[in-house]
Amino acid sequence: MKIITVGLTISLIITFFCCTSQKTEWQGTIEEVDGVMVVKNPKEPMYEEEVFSLEEELSIGVAEGAEEYMFLDAREIAVDNRERIFVSDRRGLHIKVFDKFGKYIKSIGRKGQGPGEFSQISSIQITPRNELMVYERNGFKLTFFSLDGDYIRTVLLKGIQAFWVRENSKGNYFESSVEFQGQYNTNTFRVATEVKEYGSDFAFIKTIAKDKFRNANVPLRHDMLARFPSFDFIICGFKDSYELHIINLEGKIVRKVSRDYSPIEISEEEKTKRKLPKSSELSKYFPAFQDFSVDEEGRIYVQLFERQMDGDKFYYDVFDPESRYIAKVRLNALPQYWKNNKMYSIEKDEKGFQLVKRYKVTWDY
Q1: Are strands 253-259 and 36-41 parallel, antiparallel or unpaired?
Q2: Rounded distance, CA 26 to CA 229, Å?
Q3: Which residues does residue 68 pair with via DSSP β-bridges, in sequence order?
Q4: Looking at 15-162, which runs of residues are DSSP E strands?
Q5: DSSP letter, residue 67
Q6: Exposure of 16 by Cβ count < 10 A (0-12 exposed, 13-18 middle, 19+ buried)?
């Protein structure tokens, strides 16, 4: 009897821990509607606990010391096949390059108007041709370098003033910009975010996606956000409805992803903290999300407005490659880049100095 009792106790303990780590039944739906896979997610994730862990492998950045390891305003990260890390510095007007161990190699570009020089850095990309492409919104131009930092060419964009420009695997270009309507700096001034495709010669081909016009002078607008996580697809996120559209190279929506959610009210404390103006146009609620990132496997990480207990960090919703809502996790910063199951981010230390970090990612689901 003692042996049976002990055995039952052990079985119950094992069952308890297995059940606590198992997933709950996903309550969403997936169906095809007019050739588009529509994925509707419930409020609660599939897993109650966090489904992946991060192990910090590398931290680049110092508050004092060698200038090569200081960042004035780091904005974007790109990583090549040799795991060299390219970091754009908007104030420094250069791209710093580090090897996979975090050792400084060189800086690409500098302030100026000549070949290989910048007046602004809006975005960077390592293209399908393994070139470093630097986009300047103010200068209406793209500058291309080899991954070793040698200047190759400059392309003038003839008035294309986008937030982002990305080259795809067909050699065409996608850009995310806004269309303006009305008189600047008035209540009639409105903007609509749009994504357009251009050919290799930068001749306009078509508009891929476009949001509705919204008052440009309203903070925390519930507008569309476009991201280019791959050479072969785009994701447009609609902040007013928590919906993501995955669009292929042909500009066709292949998947629509949504999640049921409860809007978060903008408190008076938040208004003060964010220095929001007292405006009748200001929404009572935050947009459904702030930003999102996509890893190599197709998982989507959506940055929410819901803060963690310390008040300075935010929660993230995680969707698996099938776009099912699997977890709600805590991260120190929005993931900037994913490569070889490693996550790269730009963070700040306790004194506010920027650090570029790399984490090894381990999944547990």
Answers
A1: parallel
A2: 26
A3: none
A4: 29-33, 36-41, 52-60, 74-79, 85-89, 94-98, 104-108, 110-111, 117-118, 123-126, 131-136, 141-146, 151-156
A5: G
A6: exposed
Residue 292 has phi, psi (to 5 degrees) of -155, 160
Fold of 26-363: Neuraminidase (2.120.10)
How far is 7 from 10, CA to CA, in rounded Å? 5
Which structure tokens are listed for 142?
């793209």
pLDDT digit string (tens) for 347-356?
999 888 999 9
Q: How far apart are CA 121 and CA 344, in angstroms?
A: 20
Least confident range from 44-53, 179-188, 189-198: namely 179-188
Tally of CA atoms within 13 A in the half-sphere of 26 that contains its CB = 16
222 contacts 240 by C-beta, under 8 angstroms: yes
Residue 19 has pLDDT above 80, yes or no: no
Tokens of residue 129, six digits = 């041709």
What's the token pair of residue 174?
Answer: 């996608």
Q: Angle 292-298-304 (CA atoms, 0-180°, nearest 5)?
A: 20
